[in-house]
Amino acid sequence: MIFRCTPSEKAALVVKARAAGLPNATLMREALGLTDARRRKPVPRVDPKLTFAIARVGGNLNQISRWINSAVKSGRASQIDALKVAAQLVVIERQLAQIVAAHIGGNGE
Questions:
Q1: Is 1 exposed, middle or buried (0-12, 13-18, 19+ CB in 10 A)?
Q2: Angle at the Cα of 23 (from 17 to 26), degrees rounded to 5?
Q3: pLDDT tens digit string along 27-53?
Q4: Neighbouring residues of 94: CB distance < 8 A, sequence distance ≥ 6
Q5: pTM (2 d.p.)
Q6: Burial call 5-43: b when 16+ CB within 10 Å, e when fewer
Q7: Is the predicted pLDDT of residue 108 greater than 50, yes or no?
């Protein structure tokens, strides 16, 4: 379906759809009474630095998981040093605490 509108009308529709957290098509179907869109809370914006920092910590967890899985698969599970694993998990816990503190402090909350 094609419908014509002015650039300012289109911009207003796009703004309204974003504010409602809906795709443009859903907003239009709702306006025509063809559907009742479920109102969703808009997804909050996240600082890209926070996302990157969390991804780095997730990478550390993946490395530990792979190490443990490879030891189990090769029959060396009994050789896993629980203290080393615990120490790495403490490091990761501290990294997460630092990331959260920096993010909260950076937002002035």
A1: exposed
A2: 90
A3: 888 877 766 656 666 777 778 888 888
A4: none
A5: 0.46
A6: eeeeeeeeeeeebeeeebeeebbbeeeeeeeeeeeeeee
A7: no
